[in-house]
Amino acid sequence: MMFELSREHEEFRRSVRDFAEKEIAPHAAQWDRDHHFPTDVVQKMGQLGLMGLTAPEEFGGAGEDGDFTSLCVAIEEIGRVDQSMGITLEAAVGLGINPILTYGTDEQKQQWLPDLVAGQRLAGFGLTEPGAGSDAGATRTKAELADGEWVVNGSKQFITNSGSDITSLVTVTARTGTREGGKAEISTIIVPSGTPGFTAERAYDKLGWHASDTHPLTFTDARVPETNLLGERGRGYAQFLATLDDGRVAIAALAVGCIQACLDMALEYAGDRQTFGVPIGRKQGVAFQVSDLQVMLDASRLLTYKAAAIKDAMDRGTGGSVKEFKQAAAIAKLYATESAVTATRIATQVFGGYGFMEEYPVARFYRDAKVLEIGEGTSEVQRMLIARGLGLPVE
């Protein structure tokens, strides 16, 4: 079976690539050096419609003209020139907009989505804690009802788009009670920026993704209205797990962009750099490495867009199943992200000593790639999910 993107998707790809090469690529290295989050460019991505690709027209989104595959195309193309801006887009839609779009009340959607979909504002996704990463059920942040308000106490870490000048809210998982049998009841609460007691702490000094916005968060008696409950009480854990399924495919798309960048850089360098009077690309040792990049790119892209196609078929009601999508998402995320890490190592090796110099973009991609194997479910978690999908009762 041959899988190809539609003509409309390919035309959309070209428009996003043009934007990325003009508005992002010339500045990415400087943003990386300065650890600068370019708010104006993020908002330009919104003006291009990239934040609204999965949203209905009533909130300013693309409606029937957009789909999940389009979002993956956009993330891939932005990530091809700058992984920091790629993750900013991925988190803005998959982790910021989609929880409200999927589980919000009509009032919550009307209040928050128009600005988020327009890219004028951002939202964070507060799941991970110092003691609750892959084990999200170990959440310790609490939210207690008092006089018609949720009083939130606790902390979150590694939260993207959570402390920028245009962040409007974070959705956080919190313990809101205890179920029968003693298990924690986990719910999701919307906490607007500026809420007294809610603090986005100093941004992290990260190995990579220097131009993305990432903060630890603290909540000290942060009070929000009872109506800020997102979705059904006690369903927060399930809601966030479903959100992460989509996010895994989007991260795979970001990894595809990384591999494409590595192939582009290595191929150009192998043609230009000469040793012993000939381009290094004529040497089998280099040519075989570049060939491996092409294999990883093709396989990663096919796995990613297969998963995206299943998601779109489910959304349209024309096929696919939740079980099928979960398996495809885990496979795409695992293979593409591990391939991206390998691809940056290969590309750096092709560049030799120059690959170790920050003046060459390959060094930035090398630093940026590692977190792809960690965020939105580690490689170990993906293997566990795949094994379960095969019927193995792995713990």
TrEMBL record:
SUPFAM superfamilies: Acyl-CoA dehydrogenase C-terminal domain-like (SSF47203), Acyl-CoA dehydrogenase NM domain-like (SSF56645). Residues 7-119 form the Acyl-CoA dehydrogenase/oxidase N-terminal domain. Keywords: FAD, Flavoprotein, Oxidoreductase. Gene3D superfamilies: Acyl-CoA dehydrogenase/oxidase, N-terminal domain (1.10.540.10), Butyryl-CoA Dehydrogenase, subunit A, domain 2 (2.40.110.10), Butyryl-CoA Dehydrogenase, subunit A, domain 3 (1.20.140.10). Residues 125-221 form the Acyl-CoA oxidase/dehydrogenase middle domain. One of its GO terms (molecular function) is flavin adenine dinucleotide binding. It holds the Pfam family Acyl-CoA_dh_N. Residues 234-390 form the Acyl-CoA dehydrogenase/oxidase C-terminal domain. Its cofactor is FAD. Belongs to the acyl-CoA dehydrogenase family. This is Acyl-CoA dehydrogenase. It comes from Nocardioides guangzhouensis.
